[in-house]
Amino acid sequence: MAQSKKESELIEALRNIALSNRYLADGQAYEIKTTKADGIDIYQLFAYIDMGNIGSGIFVAPDYSTGASEAAKHIEINHKKKITLAKLEEFPINQPLTKKSYDEV
After folding, report:
1. pLDDT of 18 strictly over 60
2. Is the pLDDT assigned to residue 24 strictly greater than 50?
3. Number of helical H runs and strand E runs in the chain
4. Residue-wise DSSP of the chain
5. Does 15 or 6 have the greater pLDDT score?
6. Helix (H, G, I), strand (E, B) or coil at 56
7. Would you kindly state where each structural domain of the chain is located, as residue ranges?
8. What is the CATH number of domain 5-104?
9. Cβ 58 vs Cβ 88: under 8 Å
10. Residue 103: pLDDT band with limits 50, 70, 90
11. Is the pTM for the entire model greater than 0.70?
């Protein structure tokens, strides 16, 4: 079945996003969510990884559903792409910079 023009444009936009992630994130695609991540969220990151021919990705969220964990396992086993599920609390992005951090910037 042929793709519509809108579908083709969407696919091209996703490819461009995926390619930009490759250069902006040290060869890994990142996605951050401020709420609990589900399986569909993990598959969205996988789409960027797959279309951009990126080797791996890191998903950052405060918590993950069972579906999210299972999606990451399925993708690693069946598509050989690793998506790390990281907790948002591991990253100092939810609070102001400390004086030390500010001085390092």
Report:
1. no
2. no
3. 4, 3
4. -PPPHHHHHHHHHHHHHHHHHHHHTTTEEEEE-SS-B-HHHHHHHHHHHHHTT-SEEEEEES-B-HHHHHHHHHHHHHH--EEEEEEGGGSTTSSPPPHHHHHH-
5. 6
6. strand
7. 5-104
8. 3.40.1350
9. no
10. confident
11. no
